[in-house]
Amino acid sequence: MTEQHDPTAPRDDASAAQPPVDPNDDTQTIAYSPPPEPHPDWMRSAWLDPAEPPASAPAPAPTEPVAPTSPVARRSAPDGLGRIFAAAVLSAVLASGGTVVVLEGTGALNHTSGAGASGQQPGQTSHPVAVDDSSAVVNAAATVSPAVVQITATGTTNNGLGGQIPERGVGSGVLYDQAGWILTNRHVVQTEDGAIASQLTVELKDGRTFDGTVYGVDTLTDLAIVKVDATGLPAAPIGRSADIKVGQLAIAIGSPLGTYTSTVTTGIISATGRSIDISATSHLTNLIQTDAAINPGNSGGPLLDAAGQVIGLNTAVATSAEGLGFAIPIGAARDLIGLATGSAA
User: What separation in angstroms does the CA of 233 have from each of 146, 153, 203, 237?
Assistant: First the structure.
């Protein structure tokens, strides 16, 4: 008689190894589960994954029902949780280590090589304006400072009672021609009552001194031309004040307070076309406004651009404010320079 195959029986080959089942035994339960895959030791817990039995021990019968976990086994749960927590920490540490390796490989953590050596991050651009401006100031000071002179004017002025008192003033000027031609302010070479000083002493940066002679003054622009008897003197290049822009670099050189010769200060062109009253009878127009530090004694000194060219002549400062100085545009001096020297400037 051919044995009929029970369609409800499991089709896994492992069922052949199971003992026969008594059909009259209602307490028996036919169950099947795939053989468990062993977990690594670091994932095994005492209550979730019992340790595998030794290889020599017989395998438990698959038909035996799984016994409920005893209360004693539950006391090992904290140890199992601790192992799971330790495994999670270990995984996080290993993952962090891998991240560090990747970052080091890309050079992101290497601050001593490549662009990191200069402190510049990838994708960022440096700001060259500050560096260029600093170089411009250094170059302008080295080139023009030898051509900036200190002028000491000595004379007398009326005391209002019919008498005269001695007067002495100190200002600045700039050599614009190697033959000894100097551009300065009119009020530098005049006394308080408007007369030309009886004696002018011109001192160069190198310490040489010369007697100066006034060749011309302009009462409308507060300009004056002074000449010293010397040749081969350092001269500053004359620029164009018509080309200046608000916000550009401004460099002032002079002798503030008549003591600190060849002082260099910097700022910007704050505005153009300014007008000021320097006295009850004197009014100046079309001036350059700058925040470069200008003090008494700076009058007549040059105002330079970034190229080291003279674009103005410092003439006044607001005593009631800070960073508020004014200069005469060099364009206003070109005609006077040409008349004094006999050639176009």
Answer: 9, 21, 12, 13
